Amino acid sequence: MSRDPNSSKRNIIEARNVFKSFGDLEVLKDVSLDIAKQETMVIVGPSGSGKSTLIRCFNLLEGIQSGEIRFEGNIIKNIDKDAWKRREEIGMVFQNFELFGHLTVLDNITLAPIVVKGLDKKDAQQKGMALLEKVKIPEKATAFPIELSGGQQQRVAIARSLAMEPKLMLYDEPTSALDPEMVKGVLEVIQQLSQEGMTSVVVTHEMGFARNVADRMVFMDHGRIQENSTADKFFNGQVSDRTRVFLDQILIH
Amino acid sequence: MDALTLIIDYLFSEMYLRAAGMTLLLTVVAMFFGMLAGLVIAVIQETGNKQLNYIVTTYIWFFRGTPALFQIIFIYNVLPEFGINLSSFMSGALALALHEGAYVSEIMRAGLQSVGKGQRNAARSVGMKEWQVMRHIILPQAIRVIIPPIGNQFIGMLKLSALVSVVAVEELLLVANQAASSNFLYLEALTAAGIYYLVFTTIFMYIQGHIEHWANGGYRPKTLVENAPDTKLIGRTEAR
Fold this sequence. Notes:
- The complex is a heterodimer.
- Chain A is of the alpha/beta class.
- Chain A has helices at 7-10, 51-58, 83-89, 105-115, 121-134, 150-162, 180-195, 207-213, 231-235, 241-252; strands at 11-22, 25-36, 40-44, 66-71, 74-75, 90-93, 168-172, 200-203, 216-221, 224-230.
- Chain A has one domain: Rossmann fold.
- Classes of the chains: A alpha/beta, B mainly alpha.
């Protein structure tokens, strides 16, 4: 596929004809997708549609079989010894938070800046505290993850990613494991970051949130992108029949 | 001389002290190399090289499938036929270490696996290299899982070490038995040995408790920044 040489100035991620399978199971089929800098993209779709796998390919937690994914114009196809260099620049927030259980909240945040970036411990801690202010739980700095609610853990997880000063944030169903009353606080943090210009890709089922933050909506099903349009079009109902069926299903709940 | 006096005499006799030292030395040496072997095996099993895995599986199969006593006698009596001459202490320690390695490997593996894929991926996602993930995320948490069963193994090894009396290592049981057969005062001789075993076991349990406490974060890492709000008291109370 031809490629506009200037496109990587505009786009932080450019995926072209990406195929991926786990054994016999094809999870991504010919996926092509651009993510513009400072854009917030929300990816929706039924479970098993490949949306989580897709964003895990962006930061090389998964490799791909064919096609290419460019990050800032540079191709990295498979997981190799240098994979960490790309991951360093892309933050990821997981469905189950995945905080480091043996470390305090502040240590969870400062570990990577210290051991990966070689930041001075004091500086890392000061920055960590500022991030905790940002996600609105500075009082939990010395708590251990097990002492926090799910919503608090997820906010710490966001701060942990931000500490590496990523150019792109990936959120993999960030509120799916949360009690309903915890969801709002986490979404507010994501929305605030998005409004500050953080390029974000959010896999979620929260359509109200998507409507608030998304610049671009992507609908995936059976490993393919079925719909990729601006949020305005998407929420004004200018979508394919397949997408509409899905939307009707999840909007009923 | 009444029994109590004789027991006390035995306890502080050079013969017993030396034997107790031998028992302790055997235990520590066998556990050290057993843990080393176990860790190597666990890492091999984790990395999944096929040929190495095959060797390792055979090793575990053999050393878990035969009695420790058999292994001790085998190493002491059969290796010389292949030109490998080990002292009785070396034979005993080697057999016990190899025996232990087979069991410890399972403990180590459980420890490494206790840290889920999720945390490993989270660590990778912030840019850590594989060895950093192992060093900063997996090992510190695996240790907590490993310590209690390793403590048990230590205590088990202390008692298992009595088996090497069969190849004439002068450890507690052999010495107690010799003392008793010289004057037929079994109660006194064996009681003295039993006391040593119980004292060692008690000390091991005490040490284990301390290590567990340390590994479980009985200490609080120093993370507070001077200008941070006073967070020492908050956070403890609001557990989910």
